[in-house]
């Protein structure tokens, strides 16, 4: 093989708590795309990560001979980075280079490029960071869906379920919810408090909010939660001069509501992408 003509296979991943998007490239040529379940090393261990990789990704032989890996994921900081890197190295021992970084860094690079800005993630969870000079220089801790994650799918779902079960929403909304899902209070409590991945379960109700977004009560819920995201996160950076960019399924679906909430604080929403790997 002529080494001068060798083009390494680059595998890039963007992973949230619900799903992981994969992009396999040779130079600028896209060879394959794939989606597996999410892998957050703060929620699952190395063994489970390796199992997901082998059973959901390596079933496609095109992903076997990877030489460079760039993995951006939720929970990939500190020990989480170490866990993910060990799992990737175990699955691809031949890889020449493996880089692991936070999902926020991956989002900032995709959204801001070489410009300064505020990069945000609104998916199952939420996060944000001030990106200046090609680096993340500040980050308001998202704190997870129990203490924070304002505006995320998990928190929107949590609020919806609580308001339905406590009859805080109009009767027509509650009846529509019951007709669509047929879940009892006991079944919901079981899923939230006694089974794993409660954040994914809560976020799974975002489509109901999207389907009923024209209802005044749902409009109010969305407006309030997105306002909480800006107030408790973005305003702390004290940079109203910078555009606020978003990536994630929630931001993509509720783009109009998000832009309206930003205007309340004199902020400008810039780019909104469904996923970082949507950028070629």
Topology:
Elements: E1 9-15, E2 19-26, E3 29-37, H1 46-57, E4 68-73, H2 79-91, E5 97-102, H3 103-112, E6 117-122, E7 126-132, E8 135-138, H4 144-147, H5 153-165, H6 171-181, H7 185-193, H8 198-203, H9 206-211, H10 216-232, E9 244-247, H11 249-253, H12 255-263, E10 269-273
Parallel strand pairs: 1-4, 4-5, 6-9, 9-10
Antiparallel strand pairs: 1-2, 2-3, 6-7, 7-8
Q: Please, could you describe this protein's structure?
A:
The chain has 280 residues and is an alpha/beta fold. The chain has two domains: 3-105, ATPase, nucleotide binding domain (Nucleotidyltransferase, domain 5); 113-274, Nucleotidyltransferase, domain 5, CATH 3.30.420.40. Helices cover 41% and strands 22% of the residues. The protein is built from twelve helices and ten strands. The strands form two sheets. It has a five-stranded mixed beta sheet with strand order 3-2-1-4-5. A five-stranded mixed beta sheet has the order 8-7-6-9-10, with helices on both faces.
Strand content: 15-25%
Number of helices: 12
Under CATH, the topology of the largest domain can be stated as Nucleotidyltransferase, domain 5
Q: For this entry, what is the oligomeric state of its chains?
A: single chain
H/E element sequence: EEEHEHEHEEEHHHHHHHEHHE
Average pLDDT number: 92
Rg (C-alpha, Å) = 20 Å
Helix content: 40-55%
Number of beta strands: 10
